[in-house]
Design brief:
mainly alpha, 7 helices, elongated
């Protein structure tokens, strides 16, 4: 009797480490780098840059879904065979990707923290962000408890070899 799960993950990616899987992972990594740069360029949320912030938040929503897609795939594979070296390497890459996401998100949180209530409400009133209003409001509340972006980036970098590494080891 086999103790391995028998999941068909080909709906997520045709094959582990296949062309589609690696291209998707590379595209997400590039998107996260672009997200962080775009947030830095936009700076504070002002009435004059609401279109840019709207686009950036929609881009972030898609990137979050993509990171979750990868995490689900790698998590299922690793749950089936925790000793598989390739799955362990993919899990480590995912930890680095999550750290990249946290670093890209630091300037977004800083902008949320600095935004005036009126301009933030104007941003939330945009039709394309309506379904995310509750989430964005919670992020704004959370942003009030964040460190400076440089320290948030440092914490994200340290998590890869710190708490995330301990979790993978366990």
């Amino acid at each position: 009797m086999s103790t391995h799960a028998n999941w068909d993950l080909t709906l997520l990616f045709p094959s582990f480490e296949g062309v589609e899987h690696r291209a998707f992972e590379d595209r997400v990594a590039q998107g996260l780098d672009d997200l962080g740069r775009a947030a830095e360029v936009l700076g504070r949320i002002t009435p004059g840059n609401l279109d840019g912030w709207e686009a950036l938040l929609l881009q972030d929503e898609q990137l979050g879904a993509d990171v979750s897609h990868l995490a689900t795939y790698v998590g299922c594979l690793a749950a089936d065979d925790a000793r598989h070296e390739g799955y362990r390497q993919a899990s480590a890459r995912l930890s680095k990707l999550r750290a990249t996401y946290a670093k890209a998100f630091a300037p977004i949180m800083a902008a949320f923290k600095a935004a005036g209530g009126d301009v933030f409400e104007t941003l939330l009133a945009r039709e394309s962000l309506a379904s995310g209003r509750w989430f964005l409001t919670r992020l704004r509340e959370e942003s009030l408890r964040t460190m400076d972006p440089e320290l948030e980036r440092l914490a994200a970098d340290l998590s890869v070899d710190g708490i995330s590494a301990w979790g993978r080891l366990y």
